[in-house]
């Protein structure tokens, strides 16, 4: 209440009281003035305190926003024209795998120089136990097989990605390597081309062969149609278990970006040690912000395995939360992002599948029985594959197994992003302060009073922007997308509209 209101209220009470009570001697003017001065002083003091609180809240919001942006962007600074720090998203080329550029009309000229990216993530507190980098002097892990599910409809980064050329085939950082090539490079130190398997759809087989010439033909498995991750990973497990009954497999998506290769390789090696003890093991990513776009894993008790000092049981899996719930998860220090990375013995995964999804298990085993018989394989695939349930591995086996204490997690601190939309992609690209990110030839983009956002000049023509902020502009030879970063997760709705309107040739 204002000082005037308080004074008026006091006068009103005085007036009401005077109607029923004997008249009292009037207060001297000096007393009234003193009371009024005290009221005014109290109101002014409270107003000043409120202003200070508002200022503190504003400063905290600005600081939090700045820190979150620094963590998510992870842009390593430059000093006197020289890079400072360590390479981040750059993955070294492996000898024998030539630096092939992804075969795609959506990539700009290879002469474009993009600064090295790096992301710093801080581990959530884990009680009295801090994360340690477990030493593994020998990178190669005998008996460890890498499985790379390479699927996707190209809807979340449309029109940059398409059905026949999804994001894992694209070089989204202009480093000269596509996402699947970077995934291959990153994992090869732990295994070998002979122990690296890729599961993909028919329309992607040719491009994968061209981008990964060291991939052995019998390790490229073609699934007749998309059935989600359980069928794809289960197929690889069933075939690999026949080739090596003791095989430990690790499933890693073809289209994720990772920074901090040493921390990544150490976490995978630790997960292998846990998997050998008959666990389904996932790798939990340290959250950098309360994301509503990822699932979460709740950390349980420690797993008593000397070779895996950081491993814990998975208490539960959580679906994508709202912002308030995600913030509460992070505040506890007991949650990690679920990046969909799973390590386990192939035989153990098939055992879980037999218990929780016997129909899928039966179908995959029938396919695996004929896998090395080319004459019979295709017939059985065409017969059995369409009958398999379309379900993610998380829902099929991970969640029910976690309830029985059969799922473990290795908390890790490397940088990770699934590049789920144009807003995420923008966070991975460098830019000057308050300027848009540009994926492609920066000479084709001219802006004036434009802050934030991302521009993809894929058509070769000039793009000019005036007085607009946080836009997503993707200019391809055959179509143009304009939206905002805030709505970038809804791009797949436009893809559906294009399909319904008869523009399937653009999908």
From TrEMBL:
GO terms for molecular function: mannose-1-phosphate guanylyltransferase (GTP) activity. GO terms for biological process: GDP-mannose biosynthetic process. Residues 147-430 form the Nucleotidyl transferase domain. Residues 453-497 form the MannoseP isomerase/GMP-like beta-helix domain. Residues 36-70 form a coiled coil. Keywords: Coiled coil. It holds the Pfam family ManC_GMP_beta-helix. This is Mannose-1-phosphate guanylyltransferase. It comes from Pleurotus ostreatus.
């Amino acid at each position: 209440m204002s000082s005037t209101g308080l004074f008026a209220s006091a006068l009103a009470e005085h007036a009401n009281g005077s109607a029923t009570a004997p008249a009292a001697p009037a207060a001297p003017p000096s007393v009234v003035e003193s009371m009024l001065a005290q009221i005014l002083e109290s109101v002014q003091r409270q107003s000043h305190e409120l202003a200070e609180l508002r200022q503190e809240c504003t400063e905290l919001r600005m600081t939090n926003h700045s820190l979150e942006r620094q963590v998510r962007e992870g842009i390593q600074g430059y000093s006197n024209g020289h890079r400072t720090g360590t390479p981040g998203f750059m993955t070294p080329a492996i000898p024998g795998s030539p630096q092939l550029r992804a075969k795609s009309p959506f990539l700009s000229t290879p002469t474009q120089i993009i600064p090295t990216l790096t992301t710093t993530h801080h581990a959530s507190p884990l009680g009295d136990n801090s994360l340690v980098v477990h030493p593994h002097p020998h990178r190669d892990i005998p008996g460890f097989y890498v499985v790379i599910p390479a699927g996707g409809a190209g809807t979340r980064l449309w029109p940059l990605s398409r059905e026949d050329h999804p994001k894992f085939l694209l070089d989204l950082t202009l480093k000269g390597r596509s996402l699947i090539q970077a995934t291959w490079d990153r994992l090869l130190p732990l295994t070998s081309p002979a122990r690296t398997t890729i599961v993909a759809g028919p329309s992607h087989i040719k491009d994968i062969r061209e981008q990964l010439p060291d991939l052995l033909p019998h390790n490229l498995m073609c699934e007749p149609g998309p059935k989600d991750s359980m069928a794809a990973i289960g197929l690889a497990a069933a075939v690999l278990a026949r080739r090596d009954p003791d095989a430990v497999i690790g499933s890693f998506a073809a289209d994720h970006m990772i920074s901090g290769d040493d921390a990544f390789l150490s976490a995978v090696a630790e997960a292998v040690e846990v998997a050998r003890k008959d666990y389904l093991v996932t790798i939990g990513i340290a959250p950098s912000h309360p994301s509503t776009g990822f699932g979460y894993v709740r950390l349980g008790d420690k797993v008593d395995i000397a070779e895996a000092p950081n491993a814990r049981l998975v208490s539960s899996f959580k679906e994508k939360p709202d912002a308030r719930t995600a913030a509460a998860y992070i505040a506890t220090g007991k949650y990690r992002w679920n990046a969909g990375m799973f390590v386990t013995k192939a035989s153990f995964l098939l055992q879980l599948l037999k218990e929780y999804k016997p129909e899928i298990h039966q179908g995959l085993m029938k396919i695996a029985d004929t896998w090395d018989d080319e004459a019979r394989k295709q017939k059985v695939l065409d017969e059995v594959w369409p009958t398999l349930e379309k379900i993610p591995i998380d829902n099929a086996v991970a969640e029910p197994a976690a309830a029985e204490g059969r799922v473990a997690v290795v908390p890790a601190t490397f940088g990770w992003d699934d590049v789920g939309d144009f807003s995420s992609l923008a966070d991975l690209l460098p830019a000057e302060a308050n300027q848009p990110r540009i994926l492609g030839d920066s000479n084709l983009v001219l802006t004036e009073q434009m802050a934030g956002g991302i521009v993809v000049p894929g058509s070769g023509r000039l793009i000019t922007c005036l007085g607009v902020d946080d836009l997503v502009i993707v200019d391809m030879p055959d179509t143009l997308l304009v939206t905002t970063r805030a709505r970038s997760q809804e791009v797949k709705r436009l893809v559906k509209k294009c399909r319904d309107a008869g523009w399937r040739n653009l999908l």
